Automatic annotation (TrEMBL):
PANTHER family from the UniProt entry: 4-CARBOXYMUCONOLACTONE DECARBOXYLASE FAMILY PROTEIN (AFU_ORTHOLOGUE AFUA_6G11590), BLL7811 PROTEIN
Organism for this UniProt entry: Glutamicibacter halophytocola
Top-rank taxon: Bacteria
Protein name: Carboxymuconolactone decarboxylase family protein
Carboxymuconolactone decarboxylase-like domain boundaries: 17-91
Lineage: Bacteria, Bacillati, Actinomycetota, Actinomycetes, Micrococcales
Length: 146
């Protein structure tokens, strides 16, 4: 690891923890883990992918569903609401500076979630993207599991 921001930049790290605390309490737990796992996969964050797949399994989310996060659009394991949240995750994570989040994806989310729930999802997606960037930049490695 290059540096440990929790030790070297305590106030900034605490601010991200505050956002994490809010987001994790505002989105249903299973959906939150799926969103965090999807964004971490898209960002190529091995630490966060490892963490959130294990956290999800410990919550009781079946491994088959976690494996299917990579191809959620074609999987019968996801509800329409989960697919809408994961599509929103894709577009927020891969934000296109010219177009942002498409109307189609935003409207699909609006069919499944209230305005408050969409706002909470956006904050949750933004939070995991911050964590991914911290972990990747500081070269945080997942624990060796045996």
């Amino acid at each position: 690891m290059r540096m440990n921001l929790s030790k070297t930049h305590k106030k900034g790290y605490a601010a991200v923890l505050g956002l994490e605390s809010y987001a994790s309490s505002a989105v249903p737990k299973e959906l939150y883990e799926l969103v965090k796992l999807r964004a971490s996969i898209l960002n190529g964050c091995s630490f966060c992918t490892d963490m959130h797949s294990h956290d999800a399994m410990n919550m009781g989310i079946p491994a088959a569903k976690l494996f299917a996060v990579a191809a959620y659009n074609d999987s019968p394991l996801f509800s329409d609401a989960e697919r809408a949240a994961l599509r929103l995750t894709d577009e927020v994570t891969r934000l296109d500076a010219m177009h942002g989040v498409s109307d189609e994806v935003f409207n699909d989310a609006a069919e499944e979630f209230s305005e408050e729930e969409i706002g909470n999802l956006i904050l949750a997606i933004a939070t995991i993207n911050v964590w991914n960037r911290i972990a990747i930049t500081t070269q945080l490695e997942p624990p060796v599991r045996g």
